[in-house]
Amino acid sequence: MCPLDKKLLELFNATKNGSITLAEFIHYVKEHEKSLRLNFSKFDKNKDGKIDQYEIIRAFQELRIEIDDTEAVKLLKRMDKDGSLEISFEEWRDFLLYCPFTDLHDLIKYWRHSACIDIGEDMNVPDDFTQAEIITGMWWRHLVSGGVAGAVSRTFTAPLDRLKVYLQVYGNQHSNITACFKSMLNEGGKLGMWRGNGINVLKIAPESAFKFMAYEQAKRFIQGSRTNDLTIFEKFMAGSLAGGFSQSLIYPLEVLKTQLAIRKSNQYKGIFDCIQKMYYHEGMRSFYRGYVPNLIGILPYAGIDLAVYETLKNKYITSHNDSEKPGVPLLLACGTISSTCGQVCSYPLALVRTRLQAPRPDTRTMMSVFREIWIKEGMAGLYRGITPNFLKVVPAVSISYVVYERCREALGVSML
């Protein structure tokens, strides 16, 4: 149960017996409606029973919260059911009825949205922040919270991630996951299961920063002088461009992660030794092995991830008549499902990328690796390692969510 649900249950359940009676529910609704009417009157400056965008801006300014016309219209549309561009008390009440807060600042926080959870995948869609979050600097707190959560979850699930990489590269040499796991354990011991995790954690910060900056620029370029929101397709294009840009800049770290994850004991003394030996043997080209399939894989991943996420979220909103705002756990579930769908469709490209990243004496191409896998291993060969990849999703999401909640509370991030 999320914090909002617990607070709501406490408000409903006056007798504290863990269940809610009809009388308790009716009492809550009546009392909460009185509070909502009082707060509504604080927004309704001209006392005409309606709230327009200018009254929203003025009320926010009185609360010392910066907001522009565009964001005011967005907030208005979230409550405006009849398309009148004004909020009636009924629309205000229906939207906020199950918000367990009475303070005006907390009600405004409930108006907000979003969650950025890192489950260990690199091609995820960038986080979409409001203009107010960007102006107030709240965006970097979201990114820091997500980065810390990602680092912790990646560290906890590192053995499964290394098993995935090992199967992608050497899967045809082992009959099953158990045999592969035993081979890794015998060769490197328990600590060896975390090989490559340091660089995997290290690349979170630069990738998130590059992706965020590129995404904001791409959205501005696509939107131009328009004031309306971007469509799903436009967000997909912006996300793909941002993903391609950030991946191009941090891609050498991706190659290093693979090299370190599949290395034998005493092969490298550390990260810098690995860099020196790679550069000595092949030059700069060694740091961009598999770059083409990685770049191609961003398009299906970002497109499917975003499309499935938006579809699931909008279906929920439609089924609840726009009066119930999706909570963080629900958004997280939508994100997990959409990310999984994106992984399934782009996985063959990710596998080919990893095999090209592995140290090889030959100079194979993307198509030659595809043909080799297809001929020797068939369709199943293109999905080697996907099982441990799925196994790590639930613990990664759970750990990320808990750490993210604690971190954003410590940084004062409003996330309702």
Automatic annotation (TrEMBL):
What's a Gene Ontology MF term here?
calcium ion binding
Residue windows of the Solcar repeats: 137-221, 230-315, 326-410
Instruction: Indicate the segments forming the EF-hand domain, all copies.
Output: 31-66, 67-102
Keyword DNA repair listed? The answer is no
Q: Where in the cell is it found?
A: Mitochondrion inner membrane
- The reply to whether Transit peptide figures as a keyword in the UniProt entry is no
Q: Name one Pfam family in it.
A: Mito_carr
Among the GO biological process terms of this entry, one is: transmembrane transport
UniProt KW keywords: Calcium, Membrane, Metal-binding, Mitochondrion, Mitochondrion inner membrane, Repeat, Transmembrane, Transmembrane helix, Transport
What domain of life is recorded for the organism? Eukaryota
- GO CC terms on record? mitochondrial inner membrane
Give the membrane topology, semicolon-separated if more than one. Answer: Multi-pass membrane protein
What PANTHER family has UniProt attached to this entry?
A: SOLUTE CARRIER FAMILY 25
Name the protein family.
Answer: Belongs to the mitochondrial carrier (TC 2.A.29) family.
Q: What is this protein called?
A: EF-hand domain-containing protein
Organism per entry = Acyrthosiphon pisum
